[in-house]
Amino acid sequence: MLQGIFQYMLLDGLISYLFFSSFFAFLVLLPGFPVFLNDKKKRLQNARKREMNRQFLEGIQMTAASLAAGYSIENAVKEAWKELSRIYPKDSFIIREFQILVHQTEMNRSMEQLFLDLGNRSGVEDIQSFGEVFLTARRTGGDLLSVIRNTCSCIRQKQETLMEIETCLAGKVMEQNIMSAVPLLILGYIRLTSPEFLDGMYGNVTGAAVMTICLIVYGAAYLWGRSIVNIEV
Questions:
Q1: How far is it, in rounded angstroms, from Cα 17 to Cα 29?
Q2: How far apart are CA 12 and CA 152, in angstroms?
Q3: Which keywords belong to this entry (predicted)?
Q4: Which of 75, 90, 96, 135 has a CB 3.0–4.6 Å from the CB of 71, allowing a cystine?
Q5: Rounded distance, CA 126 to CA 134, Å?
């Protein structure tokens, strides 16, 4: 939260200085903070969900290996939890969740309901889908090992596809970031080297209107560019 406040204040101050050279503009732009914060939270949540998905994939792969070795699903999850504990810290998503699974099964709760609860807590589509498929397979007497392996295959394919897309777009993302910074760098350079060149744009209604239009166009171009390189799988 504090980091987000600092970042927005810095951005607000930079825009107010470069486009309007006015403290009043800084105050006018302050209501935009909730929008900035929500966008930042959304990006952090997406990154967190992807990491949760990756950890879950590793967890059910280990569970499948234990199932193939002849363990029951409850003991397979317990063995997977032990193996995961050697890889991830105690406060990681997969360790916390598998620990819940182990402890709840010891209290005679059904594994299918626990996986459903895990999917709901995570908010990750693939984990939720796994819980639903696992529930159906368990109640209809399906092959749990095949279900888990098929789920692993689907999640892995989605992750590999996403990684390929990100690799292909990495250069474009960098270009978009650079191009987004160029207008601000140009304005900053002019303000530092030839401030009188922009004097006519500050302190009057006409200049403020022109700079407002420029800022709107700049913001729209930035959002458009970001939407192009933001592809979900």
A1: 12
A2: 45
A3: Membrane, Transmembrane, Transmembrane helix
A4: 75
A5: 12
